[in-house]
Automatic annotation (TrEMBL):
Keywords: Cytoplasm, GTP-binding, Hydrolase, Magnesium, Metal-binding, Nucleotide-binding
Species assigned in the record: Terrabacter terrigena
InterPro entries (alphabetical): G_OBG, GTP-bd, GTP-bd_Obg/CgtA, GTP-bd_prot_GTP1/OBG_C_sf, GTP1-OBG_CS, GTP1_OBG_dom, GTP1_OBG_dom_sf, OBG_GTPase
Keyword Glycoprotein: no
Entry cofactors: Mg(2+)
Keyword Transcription regulation set for record: no
Protein name: GTPase Obg
């Protein structure tokens, strides 16, 4: 049988990687060294979950669970930045709950148009134009783009209905939905006819609410028996629970009181997500519907057990979905309880909430250095967002880029913390907390060959000397004229004194 409804999937999502920056030098005619002009890489595309009114199931993600956003383009010379990667927007039904693999709720997507960035794209690397500064005029390197996030999440669809119709299979829940609303669920005379939750919209006077037909529950549903465990999650958001009890069943051991007790036990054993703000199912408003009263024996049984159920403080209605009996009273009773539940929710939302601010500690350095024992001996691990990000951006085939990384780590205070932790030259240092962490032998002062040409990121050929002022130029010109005149006078004095003479055999006109 083809699958047409899916309310739980596991998604493998990958955001796009950022484009690499480029190291380039501007070259024009008569300007062979015009300075750095490398552009930045583009941002990687993000994966976004967005509530879409046209989406009703997670079937598409069941068929294609692996999704990836676009990568950012690399930069280019002449200060041209790379294009950003395309974001991947995944439409999901309203009421979708996103969890990580450990079961912790990441986000609850409620409200049309609500969206959440589930996997952020990587930052683009800076080109050498953006890395240039007053002290670093000619960087010979650029930063690499960061990889995008890879996440694995679980999507669970929990229907947003006000009223849930629950009960044993073939109790008449689908029939009630079909006569109370415009929904047309499948109806047949065999158990487990309903395989997916059916939603319908009901109007009672000025009230308008939705009801959900939850697939039949049986004993052990909270443990996965039957279809109950798969669809009990659709009851979590419902404010009113309506027990639909079959008074015309001929199964042995079945009667209205027993059916109610069995379903109530299953509801009490099911634990909803407390982080969603939902109360335990046992605390929800209850209504009991004694169905199939068009059968004479069923009506007699319903009238017999009704006083016992009302003695428990439960509102009871004797109805017949087929004969359309008692439905108006039931509809207005559900509307009354729904309006009351909505008023309570609005009051809670309007109540002032205390905002707790947790600023960072003054001595928070943004990283941590720990001493650990590994298979090859003791090593030191550096963790923190900035050190890990800087390592990912570094091109280790470029000595100047490696030196730039060393400068950044030194200014951050990583070397000082390594000294405090007991590290000495030659010890193994690991930057990162994952398997792809960078491992190197630590040297307190890391230097690259580029420093021999001057400060890191400088080029002596691009060093600018101070430009003389107009008065300084005039003074220099006067000094040159005076020096020339003094030289001429000295030569003329030597000639007159006879120090210069012509050879005897030379021609006077020579």
């Amino acid at each position: 049988m083809a699958v047409t409804f899916v309310d739980r999937v596991v998604l493998h999502l990958s955001a796009g990687a950022g484009g690499h920056g480029v190291a380039s030098v501007k070259r024009e005619k008569f300007k062979p060294l015009g300075g750095p002009d490398g552009g930045n890489g583009g941002r990687g595309g993000s994966v976004i979950l967005r509530v879409d009114p046209q989406s009703t199931t997670l079937l598409e993600y069941h068929r294609h669970p692996h999704r990836k956003a676009g990568n950012g383009a690399p930069g280019a010379g002449d200060e041209r930045n790379g294009a950003d990667g395309d974001d991947l927007v995944l439409p999901v039904p309203e009421g979708t709950v996103v969890k990580d693999r450990s079961g912790q709720i990441v986000v609850d997507l409620v409200g049309m148009g609500t969206e959440h960035v589930i996997a952020a794209g990587g930052r683009g690397g800076l080109g050498n134009k953006a890395l240039a500064s007053a002290r670093r005029k000619a960087p010979g390197f650029a930063l690499l783009g960061e990889p995008g996030e890879d996440v694995e999440v679980v999507l669970e669809l929990k229907s947003l209905a006000d009223v849930a119709l629950i009960g044993f299979p073939s109790a008449g829940k689908s029939s009630l939905v079909s006569v109370l609303s415009a929904a047309k669920p499948k109806i047949a005379d065999y158990p487990f006819t309903t395989l997916v939750p059916n939603l319908g919209v009901v109007t009672a006077g000025s009230s308008r609410f939705t009801i959900a037909d939850v697939p039949g529950l049986i004993p052990g549903a909270h443990e996965g028996k039957g279809l109950g465990l798969e669809f009990l999650r659709h009851v979590e958001r419902c404010s009113v629970l309506v027990h639909v009890i079959d008074c015309a069943t001929l199964e042995p051991g079945r009667d209205p009181m027993t059916d109610l007790d069995v379903i109530e036990n299953e509801l009490s054993l099911y634990v909803p997500d407390a982080s969603l703000g939902g109360r335990p199912l046992s605390e929800r408003t209850r209504i009991v519907v004694l169905n199939k009263a068009d059968v004479p024996e069923a009506r007699e049984l319903a009238e017999m057990v009704k006083p016992d159920l009302e003695a428990r403080g439960i509102e009871v209605f004797v109805v017949s979905a087929v004969a359309n009996q008692g439905l108006r009273e039931l509809t207005f009773a559900m509307a009354r309880h729904v309006d009351q539940a909505r008023a309570e929710i609005e009051a809670e939302a309007a109540a002032p909430k205390r905002v707790v601010l947790r600023p960072k500690s003054v001595d928070d350095k943004g990283f941590a250095v720990t001493k650990e024992n590994g298979p090859d001996g003791v090593f030191f691990r550096v963790t923190g967002d900035r050190p890990v990000r800087w390592v990912r951006q570094t091109d280790f085939s470029n000595d100047e880029a490696v030196g730039y990384l060393a400068d950044r780590l030194g200014r951050l205070g990583v070397e000082d913390e390594l000294f405090k932790a007991g590290a000495v030259a030659g010890d193994t240092v690991v930057i990162g907390a994952t398997d792809d962490a960078v491992v190197f032998d630590w040297e307190p002062t890391l230097q690259a060959g580029a420093e021999l040409l001057g400060s890191r990121g400088t080029d002596l050929r691009l060093a600018e000397s101070s430009r003389p002022t107009r008065d300084e130029k005039r003074e220099a010109q006067r000094d040159r004229y005076a020096a020339r005149a003094a030289t001429q006078e000295e030569l003329e004095a030597e000639r007159r004194s006879g120090l210069w003479h012509l050879a005897a055999d030379s021609d006077d006109d020579a």
